Amino acid sequence: MISLLAPLKLAGLTVALFGAAYLGVPAARQPTPSARAAVIGGAPAPPAALSSVAEILNTDGHQVHKCTGTVVSATVILTAGHCAENGSTGAVNKSSGYTVLTGGAGGSTVTPQVSTVFAVIVNEGFHRRTVDDDAALLILSAPVAAPPVRLATGADRRELRPGSTAMIVGLGKTSYAQPRPTVGARWAATVLQAAPWCSRYARPFFAGSEICAVDPRSYRTGACYGDSGGPLLALDTARAELVQIGITSHGYGRCSTRLPSVFTRVDPIASWVEAWIQAYPPRPVPPAPQP
Asked: Are the C-beta atoms of residues 23 and 214 closer than 8 Å to each other?
């Protein structure tokens, strides 16, 4: 299993990038899981999918780790748990090391809003060895203008049905051997698979907290290094809007598109996210000084 974390050489620094048919037939051979980053086989993401996407950079000494995330409130970013702690020790990363770009993430023509981080909160259920409950929140030092994404809840079970199409969005690699960081967020279609299939071909798989997906028609799309923490989006046809149903967590092999990508389910943690949103409401903007 890989957690979608990949090293790249950039300006003398080692940059670590974290981060449509139902498949009822066996996958290739049972893979070994590993963490991966950017979207393979995708296309530039449209503004509707980009508006809530965040680019997350964490500086640790001479290394910069890159993840994707989503704006869930003016002061809260949702990402993967393994993007928020040391993979070897489990120590939570220092908030001072983070820089978050929103509103223009992924190389759009809009200048991104640059934010610092006040606090890092890892889901208490996250296990770094099995990578289940892979979720974390970054509390921003000041509000951002980017709109929040709508998170799936227990009422959104229709969007989680096996065979449903969903979209992976991320800022990671477009191939395992890609030597340079991706410029511009990309998205690609994938297909949600049934829990028994995932339990067999995405071990260890936790049906209560994870979704697995693969595109069995073309086997051209999947997550890769740098996509970690990014959203898995579904179309809520009743509301005619995109809803986040998953968080990119991990995959298998060298970003193989013939093997499943695994995502943390959002619906079981939506209330946890909402509790922290309420705990850190946006601070009121001070009035302008009188002339």
From this structure: yes
Beta strands in 193-237 (DSSP E): 210-214, 231-236
C-alpha 283: how far from chain center? 26
Going along the chain from its start, the domains and CATH numbers come out as 6-19+52-148+272-279 (2.40.10.10), 150-267 (2.40.10.10)
Q: In 10 A of CB 90, how many CB atoms? A: 12
Q: What are the CA-CA distances from residue 171 to residues 71, 145, 222, 258 (Å)?
A: 15, 20, 13, 20
Digit-coded pLDDT (tens) for 151-186: 999 999 889 999 999 999 888 676 556 666 555 677
Report the C-alpha dihedral over residues 247, 66, 170, 116, rounded to 10 degrees.
Answer: 80
The string of pLDDT tens digits covering residues 83-123 is 999 988 999 999 999 999 998 755 556 788 999 999 999 99
**Distance between CA 17 and CA 38 in Å, rounded?**
8
This prediction's pTM = 0.83
**Contact (Cβ atoms closer than 8 angstroms) between residue 56 and residue 229:** yes
* CA dihedral sign of residues 233, 235, 236, 239: positive
Q: What are the phi and psi torsion angles at 166 (to 5°)? A: -140, 165
Strand partners, 263: 211, 248
